[in-house]
Every structure is written in structure tokens, then in C-alpha cells.
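Record 1 of the preview.
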Amino acid sequence: MRYLSFKIFLLCIIFPPVCYILTAYIAERTSQNYYTDQIKDIYTGDLQPLLMGNVRLKTVITQNIDNYLQTRNLIHLGLKVDVTIVTQKGNILYPDIIGNENLSSLPPDPMQVAADNYALLNEGLVVRVETKFEHNRLLSNSILVFYIFLSALIFYLHYKAAVRKAALEERETRLEMDRLQAQDSENVAKLDQLVGARQDLQKELARLKKSMEDERIKAGRFESELFEEVETLEGKLQENISLQDTQQAEISELRDKIKKLEKGRQKIDKQKVKTMDATQKRLTTLYKNLSIHDRAISGFVDLEDEMKIKAEEVIHQLNEDPSLVTIKRKVFGRKGHKTVFEVVYAYKGRLYFRNLKNNQIEVLAIGTKNTQAKELEFLAGL
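->
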């Protein structure tokens, strides 16, 4: 199974012995320091009996240390403790070595014992404790079994995780296969549709080719007709160009005529101006009681000779006695403006005048019925 890690497997194999060795080393160092402190506190016990000479120092140390070690449970479970107490001069006080004791059956002299105890205490005592983690004992075997169990548990959890990953991968693989199969079926259906569409397109292409061939035949058939139509259009174009040239000549001729007419009109205008000046001088000289507007002079000049006689007759009456003039109507009498009167002469003639402040009469316009609208427009603008 590819999700099982060889590194984890190897770690689970190495983990128990390594942890066991580290635990043994740490236990030895820790217990050595601990027991050293404990033995230093209890190995001499009460100093009063020693200084009184009631008991030897060596005996007291042996009893105290043996009693202490017998009460330690770890020693019974597999922790070996070696204690050595010596003086600065090298005298071994513990453990008790056979042959160092005074075997005399006589009771010891308390003074001598006290002196010996005092001398040993003055030399200075050195406590040495060595601990060893014994193998194949209850404590060591329990620790080893614990680490083996812990390693087996780690490998079991890793195995379960690998199994879950493998199952998940298998499920995902199965789902992906189902999806790919469905997609493949869909692609096959689309391919069938594309094949059908391709066949339809091929049919349409064949139809278009046939249609193009027919159109090409028709184009060849009508090509001659097109050429004839082009020739006809070219003929019409030439005819149109000829007509344009003719019209251009006519336009040029008309422009020349217009220029001539403008020259003739200018002459007529000059003659009219001269006539107006002469007429104004004559009427102003003859009719001093009247004021004749330029508009009236212009209209008078444009009249026919017979109409001029009739118009001048009205002017004469206005100059001599305005009451003799028959007024047809008032054509302009708004507030702020002088009232304008309309006089009809020779049936078609029209003359317009108004009264001024100095009792004079102003002739404003002279014309005919045909120019009446223009005259009224002029009067409205006064």
C-alpha cells in the first residue's frame, strides 16, 4: 500500500529501544542526584550519641543507610543503588568491610569511641552514590513494554490513516471513472450530432455548387445582353453629354442676355432717377402748399400718362382746396401716428396723404390698385 510510510515503519521499530535507553540514562542521572541528597540528610543521624561515645560512627552510618535503602520501592523494582562513604583520608565507613571492625569482646571505652567519632567527623566525610538501571527487571521491562505499545499504537494509527486515504482515493477514482464514462457517452452523442451536421453541410455545399454552376451558365447566357445594355448606356451617356454641352451653350447665351438686360435696366434706372428729379422739382415748384414724399414721386413716375394727369389733378386740388378731394377711407389712424387718408382717382389710382402740424399736407404715396398692398405696407412702416 503506497500510503504506508517506510520512514514511519522504521521509526516505530527504532522508537522503543531508543526511548528505553534514554529513559534508563535519565533515570540513573536523576535518581543518583536524588539519593545523594537524601543520604546526605540521614546518614549520620543525631550527632549527640556519637559525641557521647554511645555508638560508633560507622555503625550509625551503616544502620541509617541500610534502613533507608530498604524502604525505597524503586530499588526492589530494578534500580540498583551503590553507596560509598569515605573520609578525606580514604577510610571507608560504608559499606562495612569485614575485618575493619574491632573484634574485641571487651566493652568499648565511651571516651575512646567519642574521640574516634570526633576524629572521623573532623576528617570530613564524602558521600558517593552510583545508580544503575538494571535490565530484565520489572521496572525496565514495564518501561520497554510501554514504549513498544506506544510504537505499535503509532503504527496502528498510521495504518488506519493510510487505509482511509486509500479508500478515499479508490472512491474518488471510481467517481472520476463514472464521470469520464458519462463524459465519453456525451462526447459520443456530440460526435454523432457533428457527423450528422457534417453530412447536412456536405449536402448544402453540393447544392450551393450546383446553384453556382447554374448561375454561371445564366451569367454566360446574359453576358451578351449585358454588353448590349452597356453599349446602349454608353450611347445615352454620349447623348447626355451632347445635351449638357447644348445646355451649357444656352446658359452662356442667357447670361449674356442677362448682362445686356442689366445694362439696359441700369440705363432705365438712370433715366428714371433723372425723371424723378425733374418731376420733384416741377411738383415742388407748382404746389408749394404740399410736401411730396420720395415714395410718391417714384409712384407718380411709374404711372401711365393718362393716370399721371388724373393723379396731378388730385394733387392740384389738395394744394388749392383739400375740401374738394373726395376721401375714400382712413387707412391708418393708430394712437401716436398721423391719420392717413386714401383717395381714389381714375378708378384704379390710389393716392395717400396726411395733414401736418403747419397746416401743410404731405403726399405719402401714389400708385394703382395693383400696387396697393405695397403702399399699405410702406405706410405701416412710417
